[in-house]
UniProtKB/TrEMBL annotation:
<dbReference type="InterPro" id="IPR041657">
    <property type="entry name" value="HTH_17"/>
</dbReference>
<feature type="domain" description="Helix-turn-helix">
    <location>
        <begin position="51"/>
        <end position="100"/>
    </location>
</feature>
<protein>
    <recommendedName>
        <fullName>Helix-turn-helix domain-containing protein</fullName>
    </recommendedName>
</protein>
<dbReference type="InterPro" id="IPR009061">
    <property type="entry name" value="DNA-bd_dom_put_sf"/>
</dbReference>
<dbReference type="Pfam" id="PF12728">
    <property type="entry name" value="HTH_17"/>
</dbReference>
């Protein structure tokens, strides 16, 4: 009998008159699912949505509806309104958060410099 190499799972020889059991099929299924999940995780971009609705922006910023309204009204956070739905750009929210971090860092640095001068 000729040995046939199984290139998918193992290097054990498989004979042509060898039976495949249900357990073997379960193992194959599990291995395939693991391989598919790994491939999907590697190829699927982990990016977020480009446009967020109000409740999604609130969750992302962890703020109240009133705070989000204030940010929108005073021009701190840009938005787009389509019909009755307000959308916020996730990029703009990221920029807002980044600019606030830098602003606070600059303010702390100014306080330190001012305190050392006096």
């Amino acid at each position: 009998m000729a040995n046939v190499k199984n290139s998918i799972t193992s290097s054990h020889p498989i004979f042509r008159d060898q039976l495949v059991t249900v357990a073997d099929l379960e193992i194959l299924k599990t291995e395939l699912l693991i391989a598919f999940r790994r491939i999907l995780a590697e190829t699927t971009p982990q990016s977020q949505k480009k446009w967020l609705k109000t409740h999604q922006a609130r969750k992302f910023l962890e703020c109240s509806a009133g705070t989000l309204l204030t940010l929108r009204q005073n021009g701190t956070l840009a938005f787009t309104k389509v019909g009755g739905t307000i959308f916020y750009s996730s990029e703009e929210i990221e920029k807002l958060l980044s600019s606030r971090i830098q602003l606070h860092s600059k303010q702390k640095l100014q306080r330190i410099v001012t305190a050392k001068k006096t």
